[in-house]
Amino acid sequence: MPSTDTARLAAIEASLRERLAATGALLEGHFLLSSGRHSDRYIQCARLLQHPAHAEWACRALADRIAARVDVVLGPALGGVIVAHELARALGVRAVFAEREAGEFRLRRGFTITPGERVLVAEDVVTTGLSVREAAHCAWAAGGEVVAVASLVDRSAGTVAFDVPFHALLALTVETWTPDLCPACAAGVPAMKPGSRARPALAP
Prior knowledge:
Elements: H1 3-22, E1 26-32, E2 38-43, H2 46-49, H3 52-63, E3 72-76, H4 80-91, E4 94-101, E5 104-107, E6 118-126, H5 130-141, E7 145-154, E8 166-171, E9 176-177, H6 183-186
Parallel strand pairs: 3-4, 3-6, 6-7, 7-8
Antiparallel strand pairs: 1-2, 2-9, 4-5
Helix pairs in contact: 3-4
């Protein structure tokens, strides 16, 4: 990669870090993650995305990395809704989102994916990749062709791979522990479920 491209990508990463910090999207404490593991840091991208200027900037920068032709952007609710919308706007295509119904992601509210349409699956943060895979399955079930995955932040520490290209603006390594090895649990600090307004999570 030419040095100019490397410098540009580094500048985008630095800017996103600054914007996440400035909007309070990088949280520190004791968090119970959806995977069941615990962490002392959490990324709440909704705090960044509540600002339209930040959302537009981030998703335009992300859209620049999408080489595949895209017909529609699909985001899993809730985290992927705004990202999908802003990515679609940058790419000049339409956006839809999938919601859980009976435990599975489904297209509702009149949303459709036409057989053969090329789908970009969009998420705010990728950790295990489960929501992305479930949303991709929803697209395939409708006859769509998933051509790429995109997220603002890759928190998987390089452990997540998809069958299509995966693009992220920022790779961020966050240490996690099982409850029995969590230092905050050992110190008696209650775990908080992110997004629950600091309500203590159920004990593991």
